[in-house]
User: Which sequence fits this backbone?
């Protein structure tokens, strides 16, 4: 091997901007840049957000940052029964025509509105709810706790209020707490179940805004930028969230602020339903404890030892001295990065698990109902209007109902071509809405186009008969919606001699018609599984003179063949036998396609067997 | 007996049949619901006859053919084999479990203008397939001028609103031109036992890819004699 055979030595890749942002090194120019950014942010606080604060303009923030002058199709119905809302995901900004260029507000991270929800007793309350369903929930005044296995025996994972007042705390060993509180009721916690329940709750929280994510074991984070006006402002939205969560038996502390870190801190260490405006962010954060920076316990202890008790103390320290100390620390141990995240100097977007639909409308109902059918026509109409304005057509649509018991159920439908005909979309849900599980009722219905494609408006011919295949696509949609995609298939010719492989059956909704060349020596009907016949009178050459198939004795009158089809060695298992096909006409004038699997003496099994594979016309 | 074979298409056969009243071409040409009963389950003659009727329309239009089968038919009589269909067009195959779904799918297909025809295969005599259901299919097929074939197996012909009702049975095939041991072109006995458009009768039919269906009053044995004489 020569040197040229080796792989070239790659140069170390240039660290990207995000990496440098994650781990700043304490160089002078970076420090200067940070100071510059801080000053710019402080100046921006004074200058820009005034108008948004003094004149609350509900439409001024939208997830896409659409300018106010543009009419919003999403605004929809204003009556009490249905309130339409449009959600256009921020990630899909590239497909919004001509609006993304003039969205300067997205550049400034402090214009986002992030809501944090902390569920301090999530595990305990979930267990209590489960126990009350089983009928053995302990009364409120009995101390109860959930435990997990620790290194030295079980430790407390969650407590109820009664146990907390008696001094039981999280992380303590169970034996110690039993000594402290002898009638403590201990149950083992279900960590995985809690995580699943939190994920469900996170999906259910999409009723308030499209971007939601899980934040830690007992917290959620929402990007409510531009969504709050649908619920009557941020304060009203927080009240609504707290009320609905309390209906589920969950106590929650909430806060809204311009950054993830600040919301996290306010929800854990701030007041009740606190709303923090961008200009008051630094002042409000200054008296937060350093624990509010989402740091590990060791780092918090270290900072306390250094005399840095609050965020304000930390911010007052010259940055360079802290940067020298924490230059290589990971994010959870780096107070500088956490401080930057809290103050919005370091972007920390809400990373939702899946993109929300680009086009969606919702109907907000006054009280829970069981059947979404009466609301669908209006929703379909609104959705198609929005698609029409944007020049899009829906390929997949989904009806989601948000149940009052904290669950989400949905039904999907697909279209073969982009479509924005409300009547057609409505028909796709004809028999499907019965499959939706309404639980004890739902009070929010969302109709979203989960996949949308560009669709040009087309003019039908003068005879009013569209011959561009749109009619066929609509037929496929309806058939697929009722019978399921696997039932509607189309044979596509394939490059193979084996009869069952010569055509591939694929879902018609995804395929285009193919050109076929008919052959005279192939049957019109083929059996999915070749059926074995019992040979009564074998002949050395040619097909059997008599055989029994489907309990009828058949005498071969005439035959043609054989046509030998060898196995495909590159695909079949070794030992697969060849086939000799015969076209056979029997005394009942049935013309069958008979084959012998293998030949005598091919060392691939016993005596060859005979099968019927198809029927000729 | 004199040979009376003459190339005919299915739609114009009424003019050449004995004892059939002269009819307007328009009425016989009209796309409607045709019911075809297979003589036995494994008899491919019914399929061949329906495909012979459809061949002319599909090749001209380039539109797909909607082929609906219920589960039992597919298992007992097989699925269509693309390479063996002489129509040579695109097929959309629908696999359903119940006769209700098959009828619904046929009706949906007959509502769509982009199909050249609809073939539905329904096993036995399900309660859903009654006079009303067939009348709906027939009216819809006539309204949208899309021909529909309903292929029935393992059943007796009950009340139905199909405009033509055929019973198809395979006959011994014609002689192979190059091999006298081999089966040649397929030949069927077609029994039009009820029709609203023409006089019922019985014919011997075979299909030619270039000229379409040939109707005659001649049995297979006679035609074999003829070919032997010609040879």
Assistant:
């Amino acid at each position: 091997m020569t040197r040229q055979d080796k792989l070239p030595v790659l140069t170390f890749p240039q660290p990207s901007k995000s990496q440098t942002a994650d781990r700043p090194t304490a160089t002078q120019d970076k420090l200067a840049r940070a100071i510059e950014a801080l000053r710019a942010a402080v100046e921006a606080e004074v200058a820009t957000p005034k108008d948004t604060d003094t004149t609350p303009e509900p439409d001024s923030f939208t997830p896409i940052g659409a300018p106010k002058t543009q009419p919003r199709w999403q605004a929809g119905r204003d009556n009490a029964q249905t309130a339409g809302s449009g959600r256009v995901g921020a990630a899909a900004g590239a497909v919004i025509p001509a609006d993304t260029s003039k969205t300067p507000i997205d550049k400034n991270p402090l214009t986002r509105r992030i809501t944090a929800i902390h569920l301090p007793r999530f595990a305990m309350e979930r267990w209590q709810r489960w126990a009350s369903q089983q009928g053995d929930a302990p009364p409120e005044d009995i101390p109860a706790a959930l435990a997990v296995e620790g290194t030295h025996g079980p430790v407390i994972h969650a407590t109820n209020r009664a146990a907390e007042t008696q001094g039981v705390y999280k992380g303590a060993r169970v034996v110690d707490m039993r000594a402290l509180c002898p009638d403590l009721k201990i149950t083992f916690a279900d960590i995985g179940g809690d995580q699943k329940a939190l994920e469900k709750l996170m999906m259910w929280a999409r009723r308030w805004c499209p971007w939601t994510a899980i934040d830690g074991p007992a917290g959620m984070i929402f990007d409510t930028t531009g969504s709050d006006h649908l619920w009557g402002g941020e304060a009203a939205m927080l009240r609504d969230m707290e009320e609905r969560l309390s209906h589920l038996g969950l106590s929650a502390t909430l806060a809204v602020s311009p950054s993830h870190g600040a919301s996290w801190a306010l929800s854990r260490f701030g007041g009740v339903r606190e709303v923090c405006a961008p200009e008051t962010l630094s002042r409000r954060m200054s008296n937060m404890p350093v624990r509010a920076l989402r740091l590990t316990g060791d780092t918090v202890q270290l900072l306390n030892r250094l005399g840095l008790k609050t965020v304000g103390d930390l911010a007052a320290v010259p940055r360079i001295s802290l940067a020298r100390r924490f230059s290589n620390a990971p994010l959870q141990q780096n107070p500088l990065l956490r401080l930057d995240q809290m103050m919005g100097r370091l972007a920390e977007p809400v990373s939702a698990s899946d993109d929300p639909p680009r086009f969606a409308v919702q109907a907000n109902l006054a009280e829970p109902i069981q059947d979404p059918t009466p609301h669908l026509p209006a929703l379909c109409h609104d959705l198609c209007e929005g698609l029409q304005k944007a020049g899009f057509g829906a390929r997949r649509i989904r009806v989601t109902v948000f149940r009052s018991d904290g669950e989400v159920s949905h039904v999907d439908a697909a279209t073969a071509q982009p479509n924005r005909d409300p009547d057609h979309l409505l028909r796709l849900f004809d028999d499907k809405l019965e499959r939706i599980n309404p639980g004890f009722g739902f009070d929010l219905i969302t109709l979203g186009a989960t996949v949308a494609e560009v669709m040009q408006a087309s003019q039908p011919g003068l005879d009013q008969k569209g011959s561009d295949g749109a009619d066929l696509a609509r037929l496929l949609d309806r058939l697929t919606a009722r019978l399921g995609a696997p039932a509607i298939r189309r044979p596509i010719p394939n490059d193979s001699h084996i009869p069952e492989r010569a055509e591939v059956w694929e879902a018609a909704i995804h395929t285009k018609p193919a050109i076929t060349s008919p052959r005279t020596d192939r049957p019109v009907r083929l059996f999915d599984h070749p059926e074995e016949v019992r040979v009564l009178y074998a002949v050395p050459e040619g097909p059997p003179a008599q055989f029994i198939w489907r309990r009828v004795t058949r005498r071969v009158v005439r035959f043609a063949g054989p046509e030998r089809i060898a196995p495909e060695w590159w695909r079949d298992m070794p030992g697969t036998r060849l086939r000799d096909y015969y076209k056979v006409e029997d005394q009942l004038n049935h013309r069958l396609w008979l084959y012998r699997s293998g030949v005598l003496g091919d060392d691939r099994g016993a005596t060859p067997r005979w099968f019927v594979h198809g029927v000729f016309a | 007996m004199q040979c009376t074979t003459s190339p005919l298409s299915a739609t114009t056969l009424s003019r050449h049949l004995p004892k059939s009243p002269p009819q307007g071409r328009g009425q016989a040409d009209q796309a409607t619901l045709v019911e075809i009963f297979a003589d036995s389950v494994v008899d491919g003659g019914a399929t061949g006859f329906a495909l012979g009727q459809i061949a002319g329309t599909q090749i001209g239009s380039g539109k797909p053919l909607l082929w609906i089968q219920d589960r039992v038919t597919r298992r007992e009589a097989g699925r269509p084999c693309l390479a063996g269909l002489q129509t040579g067009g695109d097929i959309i195959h629908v696999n359903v479990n119940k006769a209700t779904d098959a009828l619904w799918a046929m009706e949906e297909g007959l509502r769509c203008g982009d199909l050249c025809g609809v073939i539905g295969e329904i096993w036995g005599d399900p309660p859903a397939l009654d006079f009303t259901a067939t009348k709906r299919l027939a009216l819809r097929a006539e309204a949208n001028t899309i021909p529909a074939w309903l292929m029935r197996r393992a059943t007796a012909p009950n009340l139905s609103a199909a405009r033509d009702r055929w019973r198809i049975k395979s006959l011994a095939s014609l002689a192979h031109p190059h091999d006298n041991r081999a089966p040649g072109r397929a030949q069927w006995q077609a029994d039009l036992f009820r029709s609203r458009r023409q006089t019922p009768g019985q014919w011997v039919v075979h299909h030619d890819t270039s000229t379409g269906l040939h109707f005659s009053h001649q049995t297979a044995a006679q035609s074999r004699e003829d070919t032997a004489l010609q040879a």
